[in-house]
Amino acid sequence: MLEVERYGIHVRVKPEVEELVRLVANHLGYLPYTTRNAAILYGLATILLARRVPDTDAEFLELLEKVRALARQAKLGS
């Protein structure tokens, strides 16, 4: 069983990803840390269902562009 830590930890996030977190948080009216935590949980669920993560930089960049496209469709940052 996993033991839950009782304090926050620093997470290394690419600046492009953090910018998307900020845009989504602002758009939905949440604080960035709330959005970041939800994004991590949704991401973990997706990883478990897909049973894989991007293996290469190219796959990561493809995923990043897909999320950016979703942000554009939602008109984030406008």
SSE-based structural type: mainly alpha
Shape: globular
Strand segment count: 0
Mean pLDDT: 89
Any idea how many domains? Answer: 1
Termini separation comes to 44 Å
Largest sheet: none
- Helix percent reads 55-70%
Low-confidence stretches: none
- Total helices: the number is 3
Strand content: under 5%
Q: Rounded to an integer, what's the Rg over CA atoms? A: 14 Å
Overview of this structure, please?
The chain has about 80 residues and is mainly alpha-helical. It has one domain. Helices cover about 65% and strands about 0% of the residues. The N and C termini lie far apart (about 45 Å).
Q: Key terms for this structure?
A:
mainly alpha, 78 residues
Quick recap of the structure?
This protein is mostly helical. About 65% of the residues lie in helices and about 0% in strands.
Topology, element by element:
Elements: H1 15-28, H2 32-50, H3 57-73
